[in-house]
Amino acid sequence: MSTRATEPERASGCEDDALGAPERGGTPGGLPETDVKGALTRRTLLVTTGATLTGGALLLSGSAARAQSAVPGASGPRERSLADTGQRHARQPNRNYRPVVVPNGSKLPWKVVDNVKVFHLVAEEVEHEFAPGLNACCWGYNGRVHGPTIEAVEGDRVRIYVTNRLPAATTIHWHGILLPSGMDGVGGLSHKSIAPGETFRYEFTLRQASTNMYHSHHDEMTQIGLGMTGMFIIHPRRPVGPRVDRDFVILLHEWRIDVGTGRPNPNEMTDFNVLTMNAKAFPGTEPLVVRQGERVRIRLGNLSPQNHHPIHLHGFHFRITETDGGRVPESAQQPEGTVLVPVGSTRVIEFVADVPGDWALHCHMTHHMMNQMGHAFPNMIGVKPGNLDAKVRTLLPGYMTMGQTGMAEMGEMGMPVPPNSIPMLGAQGKHGYMTVGGMFTVLKVRERLERYADPGWYDNPPDTLAVAASPDELRRDGIDVNAPAPVEPGTPA
Fold first, then answer.
1. Exposed (0-12), middle (13-18) or buried (19+): which is 251, by Cβ within 10 Å?
2. Containing H/E element for 46?
3. How far apart are CA 354 and CA 365, in angstroms?
4. How far is CA 50 from the centre of its chain?
5. Coil, strand or helix: which one is 13?
6. Rounded to a whole number, what is the distance in angstroms from the first to the last CA of the chain?
7. Model confidence, pTM
8. Which residues are within 8 A (CB) of 328 and not within 5 positions of it... i.e. 6 or more apart?
9. Cβ contacts of 119 within 8 Å, gap of 6 or more
């Protein structure tokens, strides 16, 4: 029997439906009601089996189950472990979880076949736009970079077919997911690599609720460096904590794409010049749109080849509610304004968007907020060129010395650049040119929304916008802009 999922495949995972619309996607039936912690007592075993020897054997199995359940993120025994009973729990989906939103991204469609959720991933070359003006030939899944987000529920039995249309062998590793060794996706160790033209079947039961990832684990430097990554979200069977209104997924990545070229260089180890959120560099990133008062969850994953990313949210404090291993107990949730997402890790933050406005969300490594920034040029800060420009123009018409006061003017001037390149590209904001790029996006919080489409720039209420100070204001408050800048010692005299 085959039942097609209620959620159609979308070109973009960013929801644009009306507020309050019915949720899409679904979950299968519940896990067994038995609590493995302390439920398998000798008395209950003797009653249910009627045999002391059988009861002793099951008690031993129960001990193994208790040991497994102590593993962070695991809600049941690992498949084919001593405690695994062989029961499978995937059934016809219901609608009792909030589907994730993938800005600039997509989600993988599924269908149910004999109580198993069935997915199909296709590894292939993909022509991808990182930002307006920069395209590259990458490797991805199902025509997308990064691959579509997989969304399922704790207890689901999943069957994922992987077809290889690449010119090289590949595999998929289900990063952070507890499963049998033979399904783990490390080429040559877990199983044979998937040769070009072959289709492999991965199948396992989801024994956890967590934010996970997937990626190639064959020739990893090349294939991850070319974009073969994606997110794998496992919703809890029984939700824990306050219900969220908006649940965003962002995968962080970094690339080396030399100016004027059309393919990422996967051999780069240190000098990455395109930094992305869901494979887009600002100004190509879509905003995160929420209504004032909504509870927001942002799931962050990092499959960058080399760098950790401290992600900073302006305007709000949040709690880190999940790590790779699942939910953090409420007593251990840290209030933060910046969350460090290490390479190969996921972090989940939650907050209430109680203040309207346009708020930056970005990596706080400053060179990660620049597009195609290189390191092979001299420090020009403070240089006084004098009449150098006029002399050089006799040899190079149009020459202009730049960088004496920083890098901002390079993007704003819109100078000619080589084809298919975005060095120093920023974007025009409501109040002027934004000298940011790369791993940067905007959280847009609005008091009223009819839809989650981009509402445009925020209209600041009166007296809530920083403006140039007037002479009367300076005089009123005794500010002399020509006097020496005031400062006091940091320690008492």
1. buried
2. helix 42-49
3. 27
4. 52
5. strand
6. 83
7. 0.81
8. 320, 321, 322
9. 108, 109, 110, 150, 158, 159, 160, 161
